[in-house]
Amino acid sequence: MLLDEDLTDLCDDILAGLPRSDQRRRGREYVRGLLLARGRKSIRNIAAISTEPAAEQALHHFVSDSTWDWMPVRRALARHVTRLCGARTWVLHPTLIRKAGTHSVGVGRRYSPGLGQSLNAQHAVGLWAASASVVTPVNWRLHLNEDWLSDEKRRRRAAIPDDAVTQSLGACTVETYLELGAPAGELVVVDAREMDVEAVLRRLRAAGAPVLIRVPAGLRLVPAAGSAAEPAGDLAATARHQRRPVFGLTASPPVLAGTVAVRLPSTRSHDPLLLVELSAPGRREPGQLWLTSRGDIGLADLVRRTALVRRVTDDLEATGDQVGLRDFTGRSYRGWHRHVTLASAAHTVLAMHSRPEPALRRTS
C-alpha cells in the first residue's frame, strides 16, 4: 500500500534522531494512528489502532511525559519535504484553535478578525512548506499571553518552560520561522495586517529571507520618488490607472496588478520594496496590498504565491483536521508540541500521497 510506504519512508527519516528504539517505534505508531483512527484524534482513539498491550498508556507517556526533543524532528521533516517536493516558499500562518474548556495550555479569549468575534481558543503560528503541489506544516509556536505567563500555578501545571516570555503576535510569527533554521533565500509569505509590519519585515530580512507580506491600507510608506510617507492604500490608488492584467494564471475572473516602488520610512532610500495591489476588474473597492523585497519575481508567480495563504487556510480545515492537528486535549506545553509535530508528519504523508504527480522515492 503506497500510503504505508510513504509513512515508513517519512518516519524512518524524521525519527532517526530519536535516541531510543522504543521512541522511534512509538512515534511511528502515533503517526499511523493519526492517519487511521476514526473521529477525534485523541490518544485513546489513536491507541485503538495499535495491537500492542497498554498502548494508550505508552502513547500518553510518549507524547506528554517523555524526554524527546521535537525541534530536531521538525527540522528533519522540513528537510524531507523540501527534498521530495521542492518546496520553494515558506508560509507563516497564525491560526485560532477553538477549545471548549479553560485548561488547555494557552487557551483564552482570542479575537478572530475573520469572524469579527472573540473565541475561546489557543493561538498558534504554523510555518508551512509550500510547492506547486504540496503545502504542509513543519513548525509551530504557541502565542502565550500574559494571563498564562504571569500565573505561576498555570505555568507549573502546564510545564511552560522558563524561557517562554510575552511576545507580540508578530514576534511570535517571526520566531516560528527563525527557530527552524529554514534555508535562507526562499520566499517567506505572511499576512501581517494584524502585526507590526516594520518589525516583522526588518527581522525577516535581517535573517536573509526575501519576503512577501500582506499589509494594511494604513501602513505608511515612502514612494521611491518622494520623501514624505503616505498610507499604502493612497499610494496604490494613485497608481490604479496603471494596473494591468496578470497573464499565466488560471484564475477567474482575471487579476489586475498595480505596482509602486516604495521604502519604509525608517530605512534608507537604497533599500527598495515593491508595493503591489491585486484586484479584480470592475471592482471599485481597494484590492489586496502586498509588500515584497523581491521585485524580480514575475507578477504571475507573485500572485500564485499570495494565494498560498488561502491554500494553507483551506488545507488546515481539510487535511489538517483529518490528521488531528487541532485535536490535542491535554494540558501540557510539551504534550501539545509533540502532538502537533507528529500530526504535521501525518499531514505530510497525506499531502505527499495525494499530490497530482507520483511521489518521489528516496534512492540509496
TrEMBL record:
InterPro entries, alphabetized: IS701-like, IS701-like_DDE_dom, RNaseH-like_sf
Signal peptide: none
Domain Transposase IS701-like DDE, chain residue ranges per copy: 15-240
Domain of life where this protein originates: Bacteria
Pfam families on file: DDE_5 (PF13546)
Protein name stated in the entry: Syndecan 1
Annotated organism of origin: Micromonospora echinospora
Lineage, highest ranks first: Bacteria, Bacillati, Actinomycetota, Actinomycetes, Micromonosporales
